[in-house]
Amino acid sequence: MKSLQRVKRSIAAVVLLSVGLLAMINWDIVKREAWLAEGEVVRLELAPVDPRSLMQGDYMTLNYQIMARIRAATDGDNLNGYVRIKRNADLVAQFVGFESSYLDASALPKDELLLQVRLRGGQVKLATNAFFFQEGQGERFEAAKYGEFRVNEQGELLLDALLDQNLKPL
To answer: What is this structure's pTM?
Structure first.
């Protein structure tokens, strides 16, 4: 009798944990969908890199032109902070400066945004450094010149699309 109760409790625990896990995953999906729908658009110019990784399938490494400016503006190896950017008429980010702490959006000029950034061992961590695509689509994405992102209120970036030199989605 006791072993049957233990089995029932174990099954109930597994079901509850599974439901909780699914709820957390779905909540994250809902938040990211809202972020994509409502976030500010920022485009980052891509820097040349080896475009594909054969070991990881159809995958493209992403590097951004603005990262060199960020490295030059900071003097530490391990920093958390914000990059202050101004968007041009095409919504392409132009480096303004580095902020070590978050500024209230009302303190910024209307055309400026803050983007979260981390420096670790001299490497800038700004946005995703990889883009995975369907097998056989490599040539299509080799023309990528810009990454289009959505920025949330905390300055986090979420990749929305890769764009060509004419800012058209690939």
So the answer is: 0.75
Q: What is the DSSP letter of 151?
A: E
Kindly list the distances between the CA atom of residue 45 and the CA atoms of 12, 39, 78, in Å, as whole numbers in the listed order: 51, 19, 24
Q: Write the pLDDT tens digit of every residue in 131-152.
A: 888 777 778 888 889 999 999 9
Q: Are 67 and 47 in contact (CB under 8 A)?
A: yes
Distance of alpha carbon 113 from alpha carbon 93, whole angstroms = 9
Q: What angle do CA 106, 124, 35 make, to 5 degrees?
A: 45
What lies within 8 Å, CB to CB, of 38 at 6+ separation is 150
Give the integer Cα–Cα distance in Å for 73 and 51: 27
